[in-house]
Design a protein that fits this description.
The protein has helices spanning about 40-45, 100-105, 155, 160-170, 190-200, 215-220, 235-250, 270-275, 300-305, 315-330, 330-335, 350-355; strands at about 1-5, 15-20, 30-40, 65-70, 90, 95, 115, 135-140, 145, 180-185, 205-210, 225-230, 255-260, 275-285, 305-310, 340-345, 360-365. The protein is α/β, with parallel strands linked by helices and about 375 residues long. It has two domains: about 1-160 and about 315-365, Alpha-Beta Complex (Quinone Oxidoreductase, Chain A, domain 1), CATH 3.90.180.10; about 165-310, 3-Layer(aba) Sandwich (Rossmann fold), CATH 3.40.50. The strands form four sheets. Strands 3, 4, 5, 8, 9, 16 and 17 form a seven-stranded mixed β-sheet that branches.
Length: about 375
């Protein structure tokens, strides 16, 4: 049996579609048949040359959700000790924290100082299918989580990276509390999940995003934020004025309790600082590549005692929390499922281009 993969050869280059024979999984490894594999903003940044990759052909992609096809020796359980069987749906985590560095020893493996990823291997090395842009994946069993009963894998496909990333950022920043005013900058997949996460914590929510995509706009409104501003048409002064007035009305100080930056636009950062109340918290999981500097007024941080939390990775605990969140909110799974647009692996160039241009909310590879 042969399966296809989209091979990355370097920034800006077209993906090469190759076929390889599916081999039996080795010790500790599980063979997975593709259900869905998302294109993350990180993958777009890699293709644009904003994040460095090894200098050999490889399969990128880190949002693989698959069905267990074959189990190698000593691969009977997932990362949490759940038994794995052929036919089970699982989500793969590519992160490999070292477990030995200063941060890992402190329980901060999401910020490991020697982070590795399972897909950083030459595609010519058997068993070939190391990354997510493929119809098949070999993953260490310890990097898998079985998807719980009641969770639609195509709902899970909307945020398998973005969801845990937001969860980790919020954890670093002390979590979200009921009735807090939470402003989300951006309404892509990362921002969409941040909105859902804040709503689940009974927060008051403000989205600053784009209404250019009608489907994205409609689905954002389905989650009913208290305010939805379009950064293209609503002046920053107007947005700030309304947020400050909203906080005053709720007797919550002089701005938002929390701002979550998910847009990745450098100029969003200084704007976000101005929206926070005194002692407010700024969570920054969205600036995942170097898109240039932003000019900030550091005295604002000092005089308003602002708290800033960066977060660029997540842990297996966060991924488990994400799946539990989906299981606990079945009413939202159909909305999340509507976010995804499916592409065959053979159409990788178009899928990545559509993701980069925002023509699709969440592009995923899937059997069509």
């Amino acid at each position: 049996m042969k399966k296809r993969c989209a091979v990355f050869h370097g920034a800006g280059q077209s993906f090469e579609i190759r076929e390889y024979e599916v081999l039996p999984p080795g010790p500790g490894s599980v063979g997975l048949t593709l259900l869905s594999s998302g294109i993350c903003g990180t993958d777009v940044h890699i293709h644009q040359g904003r994040l460095a990759m090894p200098d050999f052909p490889l399969i990128i992609g880190h949002e693989f959700i698959g069905r267990v096809d074959a189990l190698g020796p000593d691969a009977e359980t997932d990362a949490r000790g759940n038994a794995l069987h052929p036919g089970d749906n699982v989500v793969a985590c590519v992160a490999v924290p070292c477990g030995k560095c200063f941060n890992c020893r402190r329980g901060e493996s999401a910020s490991c100082l020697a982070f590795g990823v399972t897909y950083a291997r030459n595609v010519t090395e058997a068993p070939h299918f190391h990354g997510g842009f493929a119809e098949y994946l070999f993953s260490p069993a310890k990097n898998l989580l079985r998807i719980p009963d009641g969770v639609d894998p195509f709902a899970a496909a909307a945020f398998p990276c973005g969801g845990p990333t937001v969860i980790r950022a919020c954890a670093y920043g002390g979590g979200l509390k009921e009735d807090e005013i939470v402003v989300i900058q951006g309404n892509g997949s990362l921002g969409f999940f941040a909105l859902a996460w804040a709503k689940a914590h009974n927060c008051r929510t403000v989205v600053i995003g784009s209404t250019a995509n009608a489907q994205r706009t409609a689905l954002t409104r389905k989650l009913a934020p208290d305010f939805f501003f379009d950064y293209r048409t609503d002046a920053p002064e107007k947005i700030k004025e309304e947020i400050v007035a909203f906080a005053a009305k709720l007797h919550r100080g002089d701005g938002a309790d929390v701002v979550i930056e998910t847009s990745g636009a450098p100029n969003a950062f200084p704007s976000g600082l101005t929206l926070l109340r005194t002692r407010g918290r700024y969570f920054v999981p969205g600036q995942y590549s170097d898109r240039g500097p932003a000019e900030i007024p550091p005295h604002l941080i000092t005089f308003r005692a602002l708290q800033i939390f960066g977060s660029g990775q997540y842990t297996m605990d966060d991924l488990e929390t994400y799946l539990e969140f989906l299981q606990a909110h079945p009413q939202w799974q159909e909305i999340f499922r509507q976010l995804i647009g499916k592409y065959p692996v053979s159409d990788a160039d178009r899928a990545v281009a559509d993701a980069a241009a925002g023509r699709v909310i969440k592009a995923v590879f899937a059997e069509i």
